[in-house]
Amino acid sequence: MRIFAIELSSRFGSVALVEDGKVVAEKSWEENFKNRQQLFDAMADMEIDWNGVDLFAVGRGPGAFSGMRIGFSVVNALAAPLKKPVYALNSGAALAAQVGAPKTAVVGDARRNKVWAGVFDGSELVKEFKLMELEELRAFVPEDALVVSPDHDRLEELLAGFRTMEKPVPVFPTAGKLGGLVAGRLERGTQSEPFEPLYMHPPVFIAPRFPA
C-alpha cells in the first residue's frame, strides 16, 4: 500500500510517501503564507509516480484555516483523475504519535482569547477536540496528560502550569506520521474521519452592506 500524505494544519507544512507503513520520502518546510508554491515545489522534488499511489491522505486539523482547505483541495485534485480513494485524519493524532507519550493533550491557539484542545491515548483521540475559553483548559486536560502544542511559543504563559516536555517547544504534526497512522488504521479496517477540515470556530455571517 502506497500512501501520499499532506499535512498543512500548522506553520510547518509537509508531504510524504508512505509504503507499507514506512516513510520512503518526505519533504517539509516553514510556510510562506503569501503563496503555497512550497507545497508544489516539494511535490515536484519527490518525483512521484502518481499512478503508483494507492491512496491519498490529508490532515484535517484543527489548525490553519487556509492550509487545511488547500490540503483537501490538492488531495481531491490528485485522487479524482485516477479514481483513487482518499482518507482524512485529525492532525492531532500525528502530533501525539510524534511525541509518543501514553496520554497526550494537544492544545492550539484558536485566537480571539480561546484555545482548542483534544486528548489522546497513544494516537487515538479519546476526548474530542473542543473550543474553549483560556480558563477552561485546566478542567479539560487530565492531570496525567503530557501537554504539547504547535503554538507553544504563543501559549507559553498559559501552559506553564501543565505537564509539558522537558524542553517545551512547539511541536508540529508531520505528513510522515500521518501517513503511517493511516496505513495502520487501514489494516485494522478503521474508516476515514469525515472528509472535511476540522474547523473549531463556528461560521460567522456578515450581513451584506447593500441589498441584493
TrEMBL record:
GO annotation, biological process: tRNA threonylcarbamoyladenosine modification
Protein's name in the database: tRNA threonylcarbamoyladenosine biosynthesis protein TsaB
Ranges of residues in domain Gcp-like: 41-118
Source species: Pontiella desulfatans
Domain of life: Bacteria
